[in-house]
Amino acid sequence: MIKEREGRVVQNEAYISPSTIRAADDTALPKYIALSELLIREIAAGRLADGHKLPPERDMAAERGVSVGTLRKALIILEEKGLLERIQGSGNYVRSRGGVESIYGLLRLELLTGGGLPTARPISVDTMDAPADAPFDHGHRIRRLRLLDGTAVAIEEIWVNTHAITALGITDLQDALYLMYEQRFGVRIARAQDSVGMDRVPSWRHVEFGPQIDDAVSHITRVARDLEGRAVEYSQTWFDAKKAAYINRF
């Protein structure tokens, strides 16, 4: 028998840097930023190990399906973060280290093989009274499908405090919500607390999410706070453990 929302508490604290790079007007990040985020996650997961020599830029661009110019802009970001060393006449080498600031620094879901570029597909946005276990009384409720490298791995129900963000519609949403909160509303998420356990798939599941309604699956409850400690977001994530894992690196 599954006891709903019972689990261990995991403290996740990471500074989401004030981005000097503007996100695109649509839901997706610009290609070079998305590629840099994907590479950061692959380095963190060990898919690109410390000291690994990257392929020649033209070959790597072709492998990743981007232009050489896009790849070079992504590699510049990695170099600035200390994750890439360019050796003249030799090539580009991975330099793995912890504590790297990134847009998805607080996203703990990864593919079972490690990493995976996060994207999301909105299902609905409504404004209403928040559930009793939320740390605020009124919120914008976002329901969406979470994907990693295009694979549906989770469904998310995210409540955004209306005292922090007064107006929010489906056209405001981006793949990276924390970046959107900061750039559009001036609200920066500084830390989050997760409780990880098991729960049953809700009735509103997206058809692309593998587990069926009422199946027991892995479950994350999160409260995200801004720099002043105010609760900005309360969320629940149901994820498919056959496709993804919750990873918290220290």
Automatic annotation (TrEMBL):
<dbReference type="InterPro" id="IPR028978">
    <property type="entry name" value="Chorismate_lyase_/UTRA_dom_sf"/>
</dbReference>
<dbReference type="Pfam" id="PF07702">
    <property type="entry name" value="UTRA"/>
</dbReference>
<dbReference type="InterPro" id="IPR011663">
    <property type="entry name" value="UTRA"/>
</dbReference>
<keyword id="KW-0804">Transcription</keyword>
<keyword id="KW-0805">Transcription regulation</keyword>
<dbReference type="GO" id="GO:0003677">
    <property type="term" value="F:DNA binding"/>
</dbReference>
<dbReference type="InterPro" id="IPR050679">
    <property type="entry name" value="Bact_HTH_transcr_reg"/>
</dbReference>
<protein>
    <submittedName>
        <fullName>Putative HTH-type transcriptional regulator YegW</fullName>
    </submittedName>
</protein>
<dbReference type="InterPro" id="IPR000524">
    <property type="entry name" value="Tscrpt_reg_HTH_GntR"/>
</dbReference>
<dbReference type="Pfam" id="PF00392">
    <property type="entry name" value="GntR"/>
</dbReference>
<dbReference type="InterPro" id="IPR036388">
    <property type="entry name" value="WH-like_DNA-bd_sf"/>
</dbReference>
<dbReference type="GO" id="GO:0003700">
    <property type="term" value="F:DNA-binding transcription factor activity"/>
</dbReference>
<keyword id="KW-0238">DNA-binding</keyword>
<feature type="domain" description="HTH gntR-type">
    <location>
        <begin position="29"/>
        <end position="97"/>
    </location>
</feature>
<dbReference type="InterPro" id="IPR036390">
    <property type="entry name" value="WH_DNA-bd_sf"/>
</dbReference>
<dbReference type="GO" id="GO:0045892">
    <property type="term" value="P:negative regulation of DNA-templated transcription"/>
</dbReference>
